[in-house]
Design a protein that fits this description.
4-stranded mixed beta sheet; elongated
Amino acid sequence: MLRFALCLILLLMPVTANTADWQPNESTQTYTIAGTTPMELYRSIGERGPKTAQGNRAIAVTDWDLLWRRDYQKRGAGCILASALPFLTITYKMPKPSANLTGETAQRWQHFYAGIKAHEDVHGVLLQALTSTIIRDTVGLTTESDDGNCNALRAKVLAQVKIAFDAYRRDSDEFDRIEMAPGGNVRSLVRAFIGR
């Protein structure tokens, strides 16, 4: 967890001029769960929770879409990627009880929900870091000659995007592995919520 805490500190530091002109579009969607006790609510999450890419039910997921407006310019016989404007959409899918919760159940729910949302927010930060990395590693790339339609440069850019995405996927998977392992944060949140 210390490694990820340090990563978050670095990721939240002011970004360079190349990445300062964009912001992600973040929103939270909810799915309805039934029940008035922690166990009923948790069972409903298991029945109605969003599916992961592997087809398993989850408590919450972070969906995203990343599009680009890239400015490829001719420079002599070669090309340069002069700028890259990202359009990053992040959607957090979270559970919402259908009934008004009261007493200890309400208190447990608030703690549980806040912890799960904090987990998903880390995925959002990792996605923003991925986007910033792509900008940093691609803007200014050039080809020197025989690149009439900038196709060679486009391939060069996509190769850098793949490197950045692979690193993001490793970090995201490692974060989930740590959080969901026995004794991890998500497991602890579940145990505290259902009282086991």
